Amino acid sequence: MTEVRVPTLGESVTEATVATWFKKPGDAVEADEMLCELETDKVTVEVPAPAAGTLGEIVAAEGETVGVDALLAHINAGEGAAPAPKAEAKAPAADAGDAQEIAVMVPTLGESVTEATISTWFKKEGDRVEADEMLAELETDKVSVEVPSPGAGILTKILKAEGETVEAGGQLAVLSGGAGAAAAPAAQAETAAPAASASATEDAPSAKKMMAEKGLSADQVQGSGKDGRIMKEDVMKAVSAASAPAPQAAAPARAPSAPQDADREERVKMTRLRQTIARRLKDAQNTAAMLTTYNEVDMTRVMELRSEYKDLFEKKHGVKLGFMSFFTKACCHALKEVPEVNAEIDGTDIVYKNFVNMGIAVGTPTGLVVPVVRDADQMSFAAIEKEINALGKKARDGKLSMAEMQGGTFTISNGGVYGSLMSSPILNPPQSGILGMHKIQQRPMVVNGEIVARPMMYLALSYDHRIVDGKGAVTFLVRVKEALEDPRRLLMDL
């Protein structure tokens, strides 16, 4: 008997959550075959089989928290594991009545998430499916979760329809696997074949379904996902563009008829993510004593420094030098001097954070998300740029995990990328501060008694006045301004 234990998770990481088991007790496994997947607050870790054999008892179930080197399962090796392949070889000859039922369950949704809504079924009852083929898509209040098939067979019964709410760990459907599934008519596979995408890049299943419903082909839709992958939002845009009325020549004037506005309206149910964004933003306004203070920063020296070293920086570190690393560093320095901006209120207590988990607000086709750069105060410029780049890519592709959006202590929101000149950002509870960046614009400034053009940016700090006084908020913003106008202060920790 061989023990399967939690591997080393990384520096300072002491525990993880069992996210998914890819095998069940009794399954034959090969050495180094993936058995399960663990999630830490920083990375996802795959656990390979240390030896070949048959998976015995699973000690740590999905959703459980385990420490480093904790026991996960046992593998039974030796003669007991050998007969399994032979039994599988005989399976096709078995009677159709030998089919086994496989439950399709709601996967792990993430920490503190207890329910989800079924947004799309990609298969219908009677369809043949392969192992790991996408069956359905669920929406939680933060992310979309795809449900893969736990095995090959026939989808015999769908227990929860589209639009229904399901709880974590609940059953979604029943799959008929084994010999009975092998006896399914080959015509089903032929029927399903045309639905497969002919392109090398696999489009989102929900996008495929909508294209089929709307009668659109892939060449009529511009994909915005990874490698041109077509997302559901892309199809919606294509449908809207196709339905837009074409320009017409002016018609002779006639008596106006009663307007039929209802015929020109479209009612779409809010996604769970959009509902959550709306609720959290309104809660922030209702709960916090929110106030915003403003300043402006001369970006000349940051832009000169970036221009001088950007090529060398990218050559050495493999990532572009952007503005976000400067702002992140400047905020980390300011938060050390004004720690209440990095704190939160818990009842009648103030919880001061002796670390900085920097939230970076990112706009995506489905709504605003805030991935978190953990321990940003301990990171270099290169490490910050790499992490922001990786998290931003995940956000746009809809691949952010729950862990990557939790635990932030302060947030930066860059409305300048959309052209915003001035705004008042809303707090991201339970945080007490958020910095708003804006468009860099050439403006006339007085420097040493002369009027010169300077690249200026307005900064806005929204803060919770219950915990942060005006003096602290202004001091924080001035420190950020000073660090950006003289970046050498960041290097010398001034």
From TrEMBL:
Residues 1-76, 101-176 form the Lipoyl-binding domain. PROSITE patterns: BIOTINYL_LIPOYL, PSBD. The keyword tRNA-binding does not apply. Residues 193-226, 241-266 are annotated as: Disordered. Its cofactor is (R)-lipoate. GO terms for biological process: L-lysine catabolic process to acetyl-CoA via saccharopine; tricarboxylic acid cycle. InterPro entries: 2-oxoacid_dehydrogenase, 2-oxoacid_DH_actylTfrase, Biotin_lipoyl, CAT-like_dom_sf, E3-bd_dom_sf, PSBD, Single_hybrid_motif, SucB. GO terms for molecular function: dihydrolipoyllysine-residue succinyltransferase activity. Residues 202-239 form the Peripheral subunit-binding (PSBD) domain. SUPFAM superfamilies: CoA-dependent acyltransferases, Peripheral subunit-binding domain of 2-oxo acid dehydrogenase complex, Single hybrid motif. One of its GO terms (cellular component) is cytosol. Belongs to the 2-oxoacid dehydrogenase family. E2 component of the 2-oxoglutarate dehydrogenase (OGDH) complex which catalyzes the second step in the conversion of 2-oxoglutarate to succinyl-CoA and CO(2). This is Dihydrolipoyllysine-residue succinyltransferase component of 2-oxoglutarate dehydrogenase complex. It comes from Palleronia caenipelagi. The gene is odhB.
